[in-house]
Prior knowledge:
The protein is of the alpha+beta class. The chain has helices spanning about 10-20, 75-85, 110-120, and strands at about 1-5, 25-30, 65, 85-95, 95-100. Strands 2-4-5 form a three-stranded antiparallel sheet. It has a two-stranded antiparallel sheet with strand order 1-3. The longest helix has 12 residues, at about 75-85. The radius of gyration is 18 Å and the shape is globular.
Amino acid sequence: MKIQVSPDKTIAQIQEEFSSLFPFLKIVFFSKSHKAYRGSHAKFLISDTERTLGSMEKTPHDGVLYIEEDMPTWQLERLFEEEFGLHVQLFRKSGNTWLITSVTDDLTLDEQNVKGKASERHNFEFVDPMDYREQD
């Protein structure tokens, strides 16, 4: 898969293109980088998905990111950083929640996506392990 990156593209457009291939993964943008196997701090989250990439790049330019299914998570995040100076973190769907993938950065994008898909089959409702009913 290739994603065309340009200064006038929005975060939402990049996220949509990426999710078309990996529907259980999401790229999230941050204003600061993170260390390997660490999560990005929430205070640096860029929540405005209509923000353009050019407004976040130090030297805005056009380019192409080549993304492969067998690419490890850490490599995808590093590509965005090295090629465009964009700080991204991959999240994986888990039931109704999006989990940061920092602990599983060695998994490939395909493996992450499969894990996300598998989480749909689980029931994540809270079940109290204690039985508080009166005993006879």
